[in-house]
Specification:
single chain, 185 residues, mainly alpha
Amino acid sequence: MNLFETLIISLALAADAFAISICCGLSLSKNETKKCFAVGFSFGIFQAVMPMIGYLLGGTFSKLITSIDHFISFALLTFIGGKMIYESINNKNETYDILNFKSLLILSIATSIDALTFGIAYSFAYNTKVILTFIIIGIVTFIVCTLGVKIGNSYGIKYKNVSEIIGGVVLILFGIKILLEHLLV
């Protein structure tokens, strides 16, 4: 796989994490650069590590993982989205901190399950430059997601609770989309 192909794969794998990053940015009540970098770092690390795990597992657990990955993503995204909506409705003056450690960990896992599956597929097709490929995926995800939080935050500051509700709904819809894509194939 050449550099151009690796960058295209990286962007494709980072697409769902980018969408979730925008939702994370919507939940912020003020401009918090540290949280933008925290999301980018967390998503980037998971997007780099999960394909490595998939690569190492190879075909051993591939059927098991691909048969349940969509259910896991759906459950995690629906949980976080529902919690975001609930908190924004019940706490009119406060915003739900979607970027606490636990929530960020859950979102990082949910958005990187497809990277795990990619790693499994990669193990069948390639056996060179594995580490470099996964590092590039992590770096691209870091950049894209940090920008996604910044973009979402620029709207979140203006619209507060409404943007949290929208962000929560988007997370739930994204989870449903992932589930339906796998069930209807």
